[in-house]
Amino acid sequence: MGVTVPPKPRLILNAFDLEDRKVIHAIKNEKIRKFLKRRIRQNESAVVPKGRIVLLSTNESSHIAEEAAHYLRTAKMGDLEFGFSMSVIEEALAFFASLLLFPTRKIPTLKKNHKKWDELHANGYSLGLKLWKIWTKSRKSRPMIRRLWKLHPRNEFEAGMMLQVMMDLK
Questions:
Q1: Using the 8-state DSSP alphabet, how is residue 9 labeled?
Q2: DSSP string for 98-149
Q3: Which of 69, 74, 80, 136 is deepest in the core (most CB within 10 A)?
């Protein structure tokens, strides 16, 4: 898909590894440290573009592929704030990419304890599945999906426009 390879992650952490948890406790940036600790408590993986950090909460290959796609897309974004639309886009494109490698992957069951987070993931995963179905059924749409992969909205307005284009694809 013409991916520009970002610098390799500075840290790839396993949420279940005691030594990796010690590394997280030693992270100086309080916002990043709290974010990673929250993800561990919620048993969720995460990518922190600013710190070039990947946190894995599972060893499942399809899930790791999704996190790798998140990293590929976001590593050069720095500390850009992710609003709802931008987050849905990133979830959609990362889930889509994981389906390219693992076409039998199912949409993960989401927890009900974080309504907005679950809605964001559900929307992103559904859209990612739609993109994958379009990709596999029609070669005509592939150039547009490739362009969408390469786009990086800089704010929520641009993300909203990009999200609309993604939802309108047939």
A1: P
A2: HHHH-TTPPPPPPPSS-HHHHHHHHHHHHHHHHHHHHHHH-GGGHHHHHHHH
A3: 69
